[in-house]
Amino acid sequence: MDFLKSFDWRGLKKYLSPKATEDLNAFLENLPQKAGQTALIAASIAWMAAGAVGLYTFIQVQALTELREKLKDTTALKPLVPTIREVPIRAQEIASFTEALSKAYPQLNIRASGSNIQISAISTAQFGAFREAIGHVQNGGTGWRLKVENFCAGRECPQFPLGVLIKVNKVSVDKPAA
């Protein structure tokens, strides 16, 4: 507020008077004689370059704005997709299932380890029971999804001639992330 009180309003009047515009006009008319044509050419080149940079910037900002609008429209059209993930089966459920499986196929070695089931046979003559046990696991529980982690048959097997390690999961469908 002190600035407005101390401001010289009468001094501003002289810059806004008709005489001031005549003085500006006279200055601009006499500028080529006083400054020289080389300085005026250099100044006009600098102003043209600044104008070109300003025009280029304006065009690029306009293009960027249009691109941003298109991106916003495209993002709005993207559907919300649910997330699918695999959830391991509880170890107790696997353990009780392998106990029942061991009773059904006593000639096979069946073990549970977390959400994994390992089935092995001491002879290739037990292939029929081995195959049926794998099918039994395939149909073992509601919503089970099996993944064969390791399968071995024949002479290449290190310990048993028939062996399989099956990882058991359930599929969980989560709500889409907004």
What this model shows, in words?
This protein has helices at residues 2-6, 9-15, 18-35, 37-77, 91-104, 127-138, and strands spanning 83-88, 109-113, 116-121, 144-153, 162-174. By secondary structure, the chain is an alpha+beta fold. It folds into 2 domains: 11-76; 86-174, Gyrase A, domain 2. Strands 1, 2, 3, 4 and 5 form a 5-stranded antiparallel β-sheet that branches. A hairpin with an 8-residue loop joins β4 and β5 (162-174). The longest helix is centred in the N-terminal third of the chain and has 41 residues, at 37-77. It is rod-shaped. It starts with a helix and ends with a strand.
Task: Please supply descriptive tags for the structure shown above.
single chain, 178 residues, Gyrase A, domain 2, 2 domains, 22% strand
Radius of gyration: 43 Å
Based on helices, strands and strand pairing, what is the structural class?
Answer: alpha+beta
Give the second-level CATH assignment, the architecture of the largest domain: 2-Layer Sandwich
Give the overall average pLDDT. 86
Give the proportion of residues in helices.
Answer: 40-55%
**Which stretches of 5+ consecutive residues score pLDDT under 50?**
none
Strand count, sense and closure of the main sheet? Answer: 5 strands, antiparallel
CATH class of the largest domain: Alpha Beta
Tell me the number of structural domains: 2
As for the CATH topology of the largest domain, it is: Gyrase A, domain 2
